[in-house]
Design brief:
alpha/beta, 317 residues, eight-stranded parallel beta barrel, 13 helices, binds NADP nicotinamide-adenine-dinucleotide phosphate
């Protein structure tokens, strides 16, 4: 009953850090982002075929959605796809909090539909999943996915949607060299076998896996990401050095190699882009085919780093 199959580019673009732009930002990333800089990101991304934008109300409490829409101004709605989320923890107390939250996102983004709508986390799968059905029927959302759900929760959401002729078409979980819980839990295999798109988020561990940050040049002081990652940067050095070396011959950075790894694992990485120059890296990453031995070597170095980067919002898979 879903209208058209979900087609997606090799890499999707994430906008959590965009919530930091302007005084309403939440300072999670400690990034200095300007509207003109983000406009450049959008222009370069679209002209290189990166057309799918992932956002959420909670990224700067509406700020990321608003700033994204501003940056996309002037482009026809058919040139890009929007992916945003219902976050159970901030549900209102109206009759239909899912429809209400979607309506507010549509207002902020100046559109009348979302291409891919997510339940942000499995706080209450039975309660919230059925609320997607009328939104799919009305065409306000074209496709749905679930985020931070484990296998059982994915299956439950799929059963609920299945009763109305719809299905979970996508899963969005934390998946990086350092955090492979969805792979170990069989979720990647499940998605591959059932034609479900697996979107991997935090592939770059919010900057810690880019090679740009190191003990000598840590993540921005005072930001939440610095609090999470600065203490483990010494343990990541061997891995990021090897990623840089692997990238060197291919004109790629460590970040591009991390992205290429996520593509090689059959996932669609959602990369948090904050600078137009990062789009060049995604073009490079899209064209890299890592050898099996390189993948195995990187995963062994990642395991040897022995760090746990599970987000505070995530539960065990
Ligand atoms: N569903 C969920 O619960 C959930 C949770 C987390 C994230 N997400 C989604 O996934 C997206 C990605 O995650 P994320 O943004 O948290 O982190 P990420 O993609 O792991 O890292 C993003 C950071 O890496 C740096 N970076 C990006 N491209 C780079 C490049 N080519 N070279 C060097 N550095 C680069 C930037 O830092 P600087 O600006 O400091 O250079 C950027 O802020 C989010 O934006 C969001 O859309 C979803």
């Amino acid at each position: 009953m879903t209208s058209k199959a979900l087609t997606v580019p090799a890499v999707a673009l994430g906008t959590w850090a965009w919530g930091d732009s302007g005084e309403a930002g939440d300072g999670y990333f400690g990034s200095q982002l300007s509207e003109s800089g983000l406009r450049e990101v959008v222009e370069k991304a679209l002209s290189n075929g990166f057309t799918l934008w992932d956002t959420a109300v909670v990224y700067g409490m509406g700020r990321a959605e608003t700033v994204l829409a501003q940056a996309l101004t002037g482009h026809d709605r058919s040139e890009y796809q929007l992916s945003t989320k219902f976050t159970p923890q901030i549900a209102g107390d109206g009759d239909d909090p899912v429809a209400d939250m979607l309506e507010q996102s549509l207002d902020r983004m100046g559109t009348d539909y979302v291409d891919l709508y997510w339940i942000h986390n499995p706080a209450d799968v039975k309660r919230w999943t059925p609320r997607l059905i009328p939104l799919l029927k009305s065409g306000k959302i074209k496709h749905v996915g679930v985020s931070n759900h484990n296998m059982e929760e994915i299956a439950l959401a799929d059963r609920i949607l299945g009763e109305a002729g719809f299905r979970v078409e996508a899963v969005q979980n934390h998946y990086s060299l350092l955090y492979r819980s969805s792979e170990h839990a069989g979720i990647l295999d499940h998605c591959r076998e059932h034609d479900v798109r697996f979107f991997s988020y935090m592939v770059l561990e919010q900057g810690a896996l880019t090679g740009r940050y190191s003990p000598a040049n840590p993540l921005p002081e005072g930001s939440s990401r610095a609090a999470v990652y600065n203490g483990i940067l010494p343990q990541l050095q061997a891995l990021t050095d090897r990623m840089s070396a692997i990238g060197e011959d291919r004109g790629a950075s460590a970040a591009d190699v991390a992205t290429a790894w996520a593509i090689a694992k059959g996932t669609i990485p959602i990369i948090g882009v904050t600078k137009a120059g990062y789009i060049d890296g995604l073009v490079t990453a899209r064209g890299i085919a890592l050898a099996e031995e390189e993948i195995a070597e990187l995963e062994a170095l990642a395991d040897a780093a022995d760090v746990d980067t599970r987000g505070f919002w995530e539960h065990e898979m």
